[in-house]
Design brief:
The protein has helices at about 10-20, 45-55, 80-95; strands at about 30-35, 60, 65-75, 100-105. With about 110 residues, it is of the alpha+beta class.
Length: about 110
């Protein structure tokens, strides 16, 4: 998908914002993906599935006891890569009430 021709959805909106700030899509970058769970904390099985699929995944909790699992991938940032990675991560945790539908990069 050419730059500036992203779908009209939440992820496409993020790409458009990055583009408007001059993000260089031709360079490899570190992309943060968050996995959220319906119930926190998730089961140990869910955490293990994420850690096996995405080595280096981190469990992040705030002082209120809420949290998410963060994993990072260094790659060329493309819409297709983001959607495929979110879909793959969501599939690993779907049976445990998890989903991956947020991501970001430091621009």
């Amino acid at each position: 998908m050419p730059v500036n021709n992203w779908p009209d959805d939440v992820d496409g909106d993020v790409f458009r914002r990055l583009d408007s700030k001059g993000f260089d899509f031709s360079k490899v970058c570190t992309i943060d993906f968050n996995i959220d769970f319906d119930c926190w904390p998730p089961s140990e099985q869910a955490i293990k599935a994420v850690e096996e699929a995405f080595p280096g995944a981190l469990v992040c909790e705030d002082e209120d006891g809420c949290g998410y699992v963060l994993f990072k991938i260094t790659a060329l940032l493309t819409y297709e890569f983001v959607i495929e990675t979110q879909s793959r991560a969501s599939a690993f945790v779907a049976g445990n009430g998890g989903r991956c539908d947020s991501w970001g990069v430091l621009s």
